[in-house]
Write a structure and sequence with these properties.
Strand content: 5-15%
Protein name: Similar to Saccharomyces cerevisiae YGR263C SAY1 Sterol deacetylase
Bound molecules: 2-acetamido-2-deoxy-beta-D-glucopyranose
Keywords: Hydrolase, Membrane, Transmembrane, Transmembrane helix
Helix content: 40-55%
Transmembrane segments: 12-31
Number of helices: 16
InterPro entries: AB_hydrolase_fold (IPR029058), GDXG_lipolytic_enzyme (IPR050300), Say1-like (IPR019436)
Distance between the termini: 54 Å
CATH class: Alpha Beta
Number of domains: 1
Structural class: alpha/beta
GO molecular function, one term: hydrolase activity
Shape: globular
Mean pLDDT: 94
Largest sheet: 8 strands, mixed
Length: 383
């Protein structure tokens, strides 16, 4: 306990003393070597990236998550809890991947998850009005980043008739958060929204690790013969969270040496998230619902795409773009009528990881005209 407190204090000291210096040096480097203008976005990217690297495995649990939860609580009502059991059909899908020590082997284990209505019109009509389920990112380990509230708030202003639910799934920074719990919790929430609330126009939205959860969930819903959501939006999805991109040499390629300086995410940071995520009691190496690009399952995606309209957004400054582009190519090669790169993909020029979610433009008019945002809004509003 004492040691944990100490490492928390040590982390905070480093944030105060080292972070400003590192950020200044890296910003200077981006300006001097790559001739990019240092915008507030660059300062934010580099601050986030370097702050995370000053911590270690325990930082998420002892500092970052408590601080984020504290700040989030000013913007959100209390989380509600729902619980349920894995159905027999779902269990059949999981069982081949479960090892002897998995807690999911028994169907007696109750699954619990938390969510909150971020926005709900007083006369919300379950049959007519759209409902958006938001799965936040943070490498499966971190809670909702408070910087997301500008995005969520303006989104709710722009679509006053749309319900927005934020999913507070169990993160890997807590001991019980082993994969595929995040997926099962998302399916549980989806069941609740579609069966208990009878919502008919569901949109799943996820950013980064949340994007991975959305892509896994779509496949799970399809394989378990559920009705799929009308739309899904993934922003900078982490496509291969447990595969090591070091092996493929991507990290050392020339293009990535530039992206590494520009992005808000680092390969070293991803490694920490991967270590926390690696399932102990689940066979994941060939799982198409986890490493969605590497283990791409074209048969299942051929069944998903006609049912769910998918939008993928990423930026050209991202270190994750290589696997996102490959994933898009694979989706495109299924030749679905409901997916083409010109409509279902938006590439943000000079955009970093999850840039649309973190953009701090306060004026609704201006915000809704930012290229990536305007595409997302148009997609949500489309028939
Ligand atoms: C791409 O999809 C959109 C929406 O489904 C459609 O309007 C458009 O015609 C398609 N474009 C091509 C080139 O197939
Ligand atoms: C928001 O996005 C626009 C367009 O990409 C960019 O010019 C602006 O600097 C961003 N603002 C912030 C505060 O992130
Ligand atoms: C027009 C409008 O409501 N814009 C809001 C976008 O979100 C930010 C952060 O919550 C608000 O400050 C703006 O007023
Ligand atoms: C390759 C393949 O068919 N993968 C899975 C797709 O979904 C079905 C169920 O709908 C599974 O049985 C397959 O294993």
């Amino acid at each position: 306990m004492k040691q944990m407190e100490l490492s928390g204090i040590y982390f905070i000291l480093k944030i105060i003393l080292i972070l400003p210096v590192r950020t200044a040096i890296y910003c200077y480097n981006v300006w001097y070597n790559y001739s990019r203008k240092i915008t507030p976005s660059f300062v934010r990217r580099i601050l986030m990236r370097e702050a995370f690297l000053l911590g270690d495995y325990s930082t998420c649990r002892i500092v970052i998550n408590p601080v984020f939860e504290f700040i989030d609580s000013f913007f959100l009502d209390t989380y509600q809890e729902i619980s349920g059991y894995v159905t027999e059909k779902d269990h059949e899908l999981l069982r081949p991947r479960l090892k002897e020590n998995s807690i999911f082997l028994s169907r007696e284990n109750c699954i619990r998850t938390k969510y909150v209505w971020y926005s709900k019109p007083d006369d919300f009509d379950n049959a007519r009005d759209p409902i958006l389920i938001f799965s936040h990112g943070g490498g499966f380990a971190i809670k909702l980043v408070p910087l997301s509230f500008n995005f969520l708030n303006n989104m709710s202003k722009h679509f006053p008739r749309m319900g927005i639910i934020i999913h507070d799934y169990t993160v890997t920074a807590s001991k019980e958060g082993e994969h595929p719990l995040q997926l099962l919790e998302t399916v549980l929430l989806y069941n609740y929204v579609t069966q208990d609330l009878n919502c008919e126009h569901v949109i799943l939205m996820g950013e980064s690790a949340g994007g991975n959860i959305v892509l896994g969930t779509l496949q799970f819903l399809q394989q378990s013969n559920r009705k799929l959501p009308e739309k899904a939006i993934v922003l900078s999805p982490w496509c291969n969270p447990t595969s090591d991109s070091m092996d493929s040499g991507i990290r050392n390629s020339l293009a990535y040496s530039v992206n590494k300086m520009m992005d808000g995410l680092s390969f070293e940071g991803l490694d920490i998230f991967t270590q926390l995520l690696l399932p102990q009691s689940y066979v994941f190496d060939d799982d198409p619902m986890l490493n969605v690009e590497q283990n791409f399952d074209s048969i299942n995606w051929t069944n998903v795409l006609p049912r769910t309209k998918l939008l993928i957004v990423y930026g050209t400054d991202e270190i994750l773009q290589h696997e996102i582009k490959n994933f898009i190519k694979k989706l495109d090669s299924t030749n679905s009528n409901n997916f083409n790169i010109s409509y279902n993909v938006f590439v943000e020029e000079n955009g970093a990881h999850i840039e649309p979610v973190l953009n701090m433009t306060l004026n609704l008019e201006k915000w809704s005209r930012l290229p990536a945002i305007s595409k997302i809004l148009e997609f949500i509003g489309s028939e």
